[in-house]
Amino acid sequence: MEFVGRPLAGGMLHNAHLAAIEDCVEVKAAIAYAQQGVDKILLFDDCLRKGKKLTFYGRVDGTCPIDLRVLNWFLRRNSPNAICKLVPHWLHAKVIWWVGQGAYIGSANLTDRAWFKNYEAGIYLTHEELEQFGLILELEDFFDGLEQNSFPLDDEEYERQVKIDKRRAELLKKLKDIQQEYEDGHWKLKDRTTPITVAATRKTKDKRLVAFKQEWGQTLQLIRSVGARVSLDENRPDWIASDVPQGVQGDQFLHAYYYQRVRPNSEKNAYLREFNKHRNNPEAALSAALAWWKGGAYEHEHEEGTIYQSAPLLRALFGKGRITTLDEQEWVSALTNIYAFGDHASKVSNGYLGLGTDPGGAAKGVALAHMLWTTKTINGMSAPEMFDFVIWGKGNVAERIWTASHEREFKLHHIGTNILGEVVGWARPTEYPPRNSRTSKALCALGNDVEVVV
């Protein structure tokens, strides 16, 4: 945790941004007032230059709190990686979330003065601290609330803002009357009832759950289709036996395709480039990838180890009636064989895990798995019991994944939809093939419009 707002000591928001932007997944910002700097908008330009998706929530009313040059910036770029949403009346927050790295919560608006000159005050919390204090869910709920109560910037809204800004300049003495006239005549701003409630309404939560279940089901069916194609004799490499579950075959095909064909040089957002290339003909992209997979002219030691060692181990340890009998070492062995868990653990700091100056690597996954072994949910479930609930509980699997990753009573720190989606897949690969962010990126690279951050 770091105090942000020490201009004489260099502890400014700009410094926190520079430290977080490189390795974050995406950026979400809710800032009431924004102005363009001398020649650029630092936060926004950095996001595009570094290939980070940006979603900005700004305030809209008759006072034009968002500089017209800022609105124009979004419209001119017309990029799916730069999204501007406008929140009527009530937005006064100053929150920036570099997802996967940390978040700033404080007083600074998006202006040069706030970032470089003013005595602002705020706190920057690392991703580990957000996890530790249960604030990931709080941030998700906050931005979901803004999403529910905002509307997207478009040309028509920009023109409205241009006209009102001009009138404000010409009729400054009558500003109050103009503001009232503008807001009363704008159907999106007419309702001045605050959307803020003490707790999220059941209706809002239900909408989010329905959207999640729909997206999850559609993408899972797409993964099933890929697995069915991959497991056909004409597409299956000689080194894979015919009795390997389709879900396992499909998962490892997507794994190899992503790391060896999409981003062999570790280019983080290569899947977006491939998506744009294949979006008009995903069938052609899949056919070409299957031919490459069948040919076998690539390194497949990792995939072979997963298919014949990790997958059977996880299926056995996560079996119905077996998972709640795991001892600590079996639990650690299981978790460290889950791709999404290892990927998450690699981003957790050594200090948080008690590793000191240890370089990390596999040690991080082991340390985090041991830490989770002694952790319980608010409703008293151990980590294996929570996994058992998600994998083998009653009702809809997607709904249980949502519950365990979004409801505080069931949530375990460091365990989200990415990990749970993969866990269910390894336990029940015939019914539910594994899914994590790497799976989604591979599907996206093949031209499918799927949600990547799951």
Automatic annotation (TrEMBL):
Domain Phospholipase D-like intervals: 83-130
Top-rank taxon, per record: Bacteria
InterPro entries: PLD-like_dom
Transmembrane residue ranges: none
A Pfam family assignment: PLDc_2
Protein name: Phospholipase D-like domain-containing protein
Species for this entry: Luteimonas kalidii
